[in-house]
Specification:
mainly alpha
């Protein structure tokens, strides 16, 4: 997101382009919407990270890592993107933040994307090997993978920016921009699109297709087995085993379905815009560039904020327990209201009966 937002500041140093701006009311509504989305996503990911960190499975480690990365995107990258869009001629965070902290915020994007791929790969591994290992070596292996994810994300996204991010204070204002050498921006954009979009998308799609085919074959085998071994003791044992496996496959398929859809749709605008602008930088002067940029920011925010919904499917009894507590509280309040209403009715009834008695005596 850094090189895209830097294009806005670069354009303003060359003269303000004739961008198409939305009406003032629509801009306020958009900012409120994406801000609320980011806040809800931040709180949701924080809750997930706390909840999942208590578990020891490899899948829980990847989910916790994804939650942390998404929190970084929503808490750091998102506000910077809004600042660059709203104040393109007045960078308010100073030279140190621009040159040293601003590039670091990009590390969260790569970590988030490859955490999703790691979750998909873990589900694939769980389908291939039905007796998961519970030894410490498995846990150590997961930490190695997480370390590679963060190191690779820093190397390919943040590290190059340290050499090309510049803080400029001129008559037109204060700018934090990325000054790329000739053809270097194309290389950077292509590498990021390959490593942070096409390759992880391939991993997730492959896992999705594999589990889908496994689910179909399991269903066919299950039906044929019951047909040939009907009403035998073996059929009941086979039925229970295959039913359990089919449920596991269906659960894994439910995990990957939102991952494929959300990741493919929300990350496509950013990667497309990144490659197109690296090949044709003059398109940053296009009057609708700011509209496309804002849509890309919204899509990235949705991608990070929607992940807690994916955790709802990934982890068994994760959010349902929380919802059950809420429902119990609501039911308790409802019961309190009901009891109070009953008592009030009884009181009114008693008062009415007493009045009737007095009337009868009179």
């Amino acid at each position: 997101m850094s090189n895209l937002s830097a294009n806005i500041s670069t354009n303003t140093t060359l003269g303000w382009p004739p961008y198409v701006h939305e009406p003032h009311l629509l801009r306020i509504i958009r900012l409120i919407f994406v801000s609320l989305l980011a806040i809800l996503g931040l709180l949701g990911n924080l809750w997930v990270a706390i909840k999942v960190s208590k578990r020891r499975s490899p899948l829980s480690s990847y989910i916790c890592n994804l939650a942390v990365a998404d929190m970084g995107v929503l808490a750091l990258s998102f506000p910077i993107a809004i600042i660059k869009e709203q104040m393109p001629t007045n960078w308010p965070l100073g030279s140190f933040f621009c040159q040293y902290l601003y590039p670091l915020t990009e590390v969260f994007h790569g970590a988030s994307i490859w955490s999703i791929a790691a979750i998909a790969a873990e589900r694939y591994h769980g389908m291939k090997i039905r007796t998961p290992s519970k030894n410490n070596g498995k846990r150590t292996h997961v930490w190695y993978i997480l370390a590679v994810i963060w190191f690779s994300s820093f190397t390919f996204t943040s590290l190059p920016l340290f050499f090309f991010v510049k803080y400029q204070k001129v008559d037109q204002g204060k700018f934090c921009i990325v000054v790329w050498p000739k053809s270097m921006q194309v290389v950077y954009a292509v590498i990021l699109s390959l490593l942070w979009y096409l390759l992880p998308l391939t991993v997730v799609l492959f896992t999705y297709i594999y589990i889908s085919s496994l689910l179909r074959s399991s269903t066919t085998f299950h039906r044929q087995s019951l047909k040939h071994l009907k009403h035998t003791p073996l059929s009941f044992r086979l039925s229970a085993t295959e039913t359990r496996r089919m449920k596991e496959n269906k659960r894994a398929l439910k995990i990957l379905t939102p991952m494929v859809l959300v990741f493919t749709i929300t990350m496509l605008p950013l990667n497309t815009l990144r490659v197109v602008l690296s090949l044709r930088p003059e398109l940053t002067m296009w009057k609708y560039f700011l509209v496309v940029y804002n849509l890309s920011v919204i899509a990235i925010t949705v991608n990070s904020a929607a992940d807690p919904l994916i955790y709802f499917i990934v982890t068994n009894n994760f959010l349902p327990n929380s919802f059950c507590q809420v429902f119990k509280w609501l039911k308790c309040f409802r019961d309190v209201d009901t009891r109070s209403q009953v008592l009030q009715r009884r009181k009114n009834c008693m008062e009415t009966m007493q009045l009737q008695r007095f009337d009868t005596r009179d």
